[in-house]
Design brief:
heterodimer; A: Rossmann fold; Herpes Virus-1; three-stranded mixed beta sheet; 18 strands; B: alpha/beta; two-stranded antiparallel ribbon; 9 strands; 38% helix; globular
């Protein structure tokens, strides 16, 4: 950010930007398609910047989310109140987080009245966190937040986590002040010693101490512009971060239940795998403990669970299923960015979606230059469409497919349709 | 035999189009060399369709495009004598299908909500080398709310079973290929929203165990590298995929025995 680099200016110090000159109208005088185009191109640029090749990513993450619940969160600059807006976005965040990092764990803390409270413990169960967030809506926001207390509490929770996991704290800070019992520099030092990365999202204005914490621990500090930007900033935290410094790698023992499928051929199955049993995940709750033959048995101790992933309460083995691990594999084999080219006559269709590339005689862009009163109108001037080519398989795709492949699909259809490149690189 | 299979598939496609006027159809074929959009055809040449009097034009178009496309695909396969052997490129075909669905959804997004689904009709076994492609396709389908159904002739495919389970689709292994059309019409024609009201073949319990990277055997308890998430069946000092060395948790063994021997002797 701007602090360390004196030559980089704040926005009010830089020159006058004539932003209206960047916008051009199309045939019907509409700006929509142009705006969508600009947005898509900005997305591509950002995606291309992010793609830095093979870095070590922290896949098993232990993340604490600290939500500021002080008096300033009742301000209504984010609708309906800052607090409710943040909670809603956090629900989306929790959902996406477990979607993308299935073997990670999350915990929620709040800070108010100069103290911090733990709402949920570090757990891998999505539903519990979402329920807790929904119950938080009734919480009254009062008092002053305490950055140090919440960081210390999160640190106590993370200290005992194994060394191979990526330890993170995400703070959603809406206040401009903090009320701390001791020296926060000591907290920062112990955070650094424990390899904990703190990222802060500011909801009000830039606070210097937050900047320092984020910088020293290797996290990021951003201040939001509006609620869409807040959503984007929160969802950026969903991606696994690059490993800071040295992370100890080790082999983690994990169990894969769900073998030996039930054979429906009429013979009675005498193995204990499918006998009706109570599941250990609900055994303490009075209402929802169901007995049934469905579920997963821990391969080490045989206890039954309804859902995966879960940590076995009996023997401590982490139980996952193969697709959970496979969700993170696409980070390990990222696709190289596609090369932008002008459309050639031979390629008429997009390879991925079979869309016809329209030669843009019908989409003539009227460029109106007020000073010289010249305008180019309905010249059969072929504005060549930009298409994207994959380096490996040389197939051409359109802009929408490029974004779709990069963000969602994570495989190039061209490479997967070519017998040479379709085989996996490893092994 | 192949002719009968193609006839059944075309009849099934036409049956789907007949159900409602806003239904859409796309057919993709794949073999071990390439994948191809059979309908809508990407050729750009308009062929004359021989439709019988009273036949809906679109049925004749589907019929003609599919047969022509399949003919080209098979001819390409026979003339191309490349030595690269590969499994059937089903992953690539499914990726193209998902991109097509995504594009159609974008084009119709304001007026209509699509309820997309993909039916895979296959007779090939699993390709372990295309595992990544398959899993990416399944997760994308789950995210985009696309239901993947599978109709297997001849062999079973564990990967496709997992895919159908992840996306909430129907997996069926057909006992006899002669009855293909009947199975397609009875089981796969109804849309996912009304499947709960129909009695369908029971879901198979999917084997979700992972295969270890060293022997490709299914394991119950495995060791997972924390860096690259590759699975091994035995504890080892180094990960073969990402070449990271693992820290052993045991303290170093002090060589006391040699000292004792030296003293005695």
């Amino acid at each position: 950010m701007a602090d360390e680099d004196e030559t980089k200016e704040y926005r009010w110090e830089s020159g006058y930007e004539k932003t209206w000159e960047a916008i051009k109208e199309d045939d019907d005088g509409l700006l929509e398609s142009n705006v969508a185009d600009l947005v898509a191109r900005a997305k591509r640029k950002r995606a291309a910047l992010k793609d830095t090749g093979a870095i070590q990513l922290g896949m098993m993450r232990h993340l604490f989310v600290v939500v500021d619940a002080s008096a300033c969160m009742f301000l209504q600059d984010l609708k309906p109140t800052r607090f409710l807006c943040v909670l809603k976005l956090l629900e989306v965040f929790v959902h996406e987080f477990f979607d993308l990092n299935p073997i990670s764990q999350l915990g929620i803390l709040t800070t108010k009245m100069k103290r911090s409270e733990q709402i949920t413990v570090l757990a891998g169960n999505q539903k519990k966190h979402i329920e807790a967030l929904q119950q938080l809506k009734d919480l009254s926001c009062e008092g002053e937040p305490s950055l140090q207390n919440s960081l210390e509490r999160a640190m106590n929770g993370l200290k005992n986590m194994p060394a191979y996991s990526s330890r993170e704290i995400l703070v959603l800070f809406g206040s401009l002040t903090t009320c701390d019992p001791g020296d926060i520099q000591k907290t920062i030092k112990s955070l650094k010693d424990n390899n904990i990365r703190v990222s802060i999202i500011g909801l009000a204005a830039e606070v210097r101490i937050c900047q320092e914490i984020a910088k020293k621990t290797g996290g990021t500090y951003n201040v939001l512009i509006d609620d869409h930007h807040l959503k984007e900033l929160i969802l950026n935290q969903v991606q696994p971060p690059a490993v800071a410094g040295s992370m100890e790698a080790s082999l983690v023992k994990m169990g894969f239940p769900g073998g030996s499928p039930i054979v429906n051929d009429g013979t009675s199955d005498s193995s204990a795998d499918h006998a009706p049993a109570y599941c250990l995940c609900h055994i303490e709750s009075e209402t929802s403990s169901l007995m049934g033959p469905n579920g997963y048995n821990c391969p080490q101790c045989g206890s039954r669970y309804c859902e995966l992933p879960v940590e076995c309460k009996q023997c401590g083995l982490t139980l996952v299923s193969a697709p959970h691990l496979a969700r993170s594999y696409h980070h390990l084999f990222p696709i190289k960015p596609f090369i932008e080219r002008a459309q050639v006559r031979e390629t008429t269709h997009c390879f991925a979606c079979a869309k016809l590339f329209v030669e843009a005689e019908t989409n003539v862009i009227i460029i109106v230059n007020f000073r010289l009163c010249l305008f180019y109108h309905s010249l059969p001037f072929l504005f060549l469409l930009k298409v994207y080519e994959c380096e490996n398989c040389n197939q051409i795709v359109c802009l929408d497919c490029d974004l779709f492949i990069r963000e969602t699909l994570h495989t190039c259809p061209g490479c997967a349709s070519d017998p040479v490149t379709a085989q996996m690189k490893t092994n | 035999m192949m002719n009968r299979i193609f006839d059944s598939l075309i009849a099934f496609g036409n049956a789907h189009l007949m159900q409602a006027s806003h239904n859409k159809l796309a057919i993709i074929a794949c073999n071990s060399k390439s994948t191809k959009f059979l309908y809508p055809s990407m050729d750009g040449t308009s062929r004359s369709y021989h439709n019988r009097p009273g036949q809906y034009d679109m049925f004749a178009k589907v019929d003609s495009d599919v047969r022509h496309g399949l003919g080209e695909l098979i001819l390409n396969d026979m003339t191309d004598n490349d030595s690269t052997k590969s499994d059937s490129l089903l992953g690539g075909a499914m990726a193209r299908a998902l991109s097509y669905i995504h594009r159609v959804q974008r084009e119709l997004s304001l007026s209509h909500q699509l309820k997309p689904r993909v039916l895979v009709v296959s007779g090939s076994c699993d390709s372990a080398l295309q595992y990544m492609t398959f899993m990416n396709v399944f997760f994308t389908a789950q995210k985009e709310n696309v239901v993947i159904d599978c109709c297997m002739m001849d062999t079973d495919s564990g990967l496709l079973q997992q895919g159908c389970d992840i996306t909430g689709g129907q997996y069926l292994h057909i006992p006899s290929v002669a009855g293909l059309l009947e199975y397609l019409l009875w089981v796969f024609l109804p849309s996912p929203s009304c499947r709960s009201k129909i009695v369908l073949p029971p879901p198979t319990k999917v084997d979700y165990r992972a295969a270890c990277f060293c022997h490709h055997k299914l394991v119950d308890i495995g060791w997972v590298c924390s860096v690259c998430l590759s699975i091994f069946c035995k504890f080892s000092i180094m990960c073969t995929t990402c070449n990271t060395e693992f820290k052993l948790n045991r303290p170093a063994i002090v060589p006391a025995k040699s000292k004792k021997r030296a003293r005695i002797e």
